[in-house]
Amino acid sequence: MAERILTRNFHLPESHTLRVYRETGGYEGLSDVLAMAPATIIETVKRSNLRGLGGAGFPTGVKWGFIPKGHQGPVYLVINADEGEPGTFKDRYLLEKDPHGLIEGMIVSAHAIGSRLAFVYVRGEYVQPWRIFSRAVQEAYDAGFLGKSILGSGVDLDVVVHRGAGAYICGEETGLISSLEGKKGWPKLKPPFPAVRGAFGAPTIVNNVETICHVPHIVQRGASWFAALGTAGQGGTRMYSVSGRVARPGVYELPVSVTLRSLISEHAGGIANGRRLKAVVPGGSSAPILTADEIDVTMDVDGLKNAGTMAGSAGVIVMDESVSIPEALMIVARFYAHESCGQCTPCRESTGWIYKMTRRIVEGRGRKEELDTILDVARRGAGTTICAFYDGAVGPYISYIEKFRDEFEALIPK
Amino acid sequence: MSRPAAVQFTAGELALVRRLQALYPDKRAALLPVLQLVQDTFGYISLEAEEYVAGLFDLPPAHVHEVVTFYTLFFQEPKGRHVVSVCHNLTCHLEGAPTVLAHLRMRLGVDVGATTADGRVTLLAVECLCACEMAPMLQVDDRYEGNLTPAKIDRILEGLE
Description:
B: alpha+beta; 7 helices
């Protein structure tokens, strides 16, 4: 069994408390890390091949390096806890079961990028996780792990826990920044990238919860240790959220070199009720679908990219032979139509139109030419919008239809 | 919990508003938390409340309206004493969300989006709540409930005053 890093304490009662966190070695190495030069920490994270685990998979250390050299004035660290990608639930577990792991990660990361004020943006529906995490922040303040001169190091950090109010688009980093600033969550044009001009006009690093939880372990155990756990292009383990028609749905922390087949058949107990696998969405609903014949792939960013899909948020949705793929696409299309923020015309119009077409097809009222219309509309809009939301919708539109076209055609009246 | 009279914070609530505003480099960033406070205090966010909040932030009421209408957790009309939100996204759909919704519609006698005549429950269908491991699932007020069966749904409803 591979070593579990982020989930190692999940089985302990009271794992969310400062007491248990410290008893299991938490905050132990913090003094030494705060004495390290920020540039050394950034270099270590770069060499570890830690990739962003929220969805985009961007190298974390490289992102940190985009803050303008010699910048005077505030820098903000923003934690993206606006978990919303359908099929994903790992950050909820981290907030509820290991909040101090996130806080320690924030302290180390904020020190590395020179931030003295950090925000944690928690999705509004996550009331329990927000309460547990907020209590942990208070515990950390009371014990001197947050505030002025942490453990006498001269390093300061304040943490503000901010609640969202229900909008998938706020998980997109510039939409999140708009929302944090008190606006509707409309994404912003890049450049400037947030690392140059982000929240409140200052350089801002937005990182996912799980990404930041890895940082203290990388800094204390070394870049090579972390890199060696994974593949050539991505280090470490990550938390796979597995749901749908498997025997044991849940969160599985595994090296990113694990194959999709092993994740489903060994770790998640195989397909439920003795049925056969039909298809898998490997990285949250925005990831193009894979057929049962395409699951001998490693679950790292590059492995899934080479398989024509993406690692995304590592939300794995498993469908067995009894699932109707057109119906699944209709549900996914409804989601994108509902969550499009309305800023860019191709996304606002196409998501609604494509949802209507998929619904007509599922209800047996589709027209023969509509499958090609969906593909055409999807392809024309791809890459034309401010953020990646629409491209995330295009992945399922095209892949579900191309890989399961017979099923769609069977529903269309002759 | 709801106070339907004129929209006006108490001195204590106003002090909390100022504390929230002081947490951020720009006080406007406290708009979402303050709107949450308005909703917790008055039950929903009326147009009058939007104007009142705009005054607290030196913002045009149109800005506040734009924010209130953008987010799904802000209610512009009175809601039930409890809100039951059924996830109808992909995994929950595969695992039986349509049956869950049908059972709730039957038990409550209302359609999705509506509130029971006694003001007890508002029924909603929502996008992924990110608890797919317990699909089909719903949120009842602050709480997630998963692995739903008709019997479990009935028990949840019985617990709502």
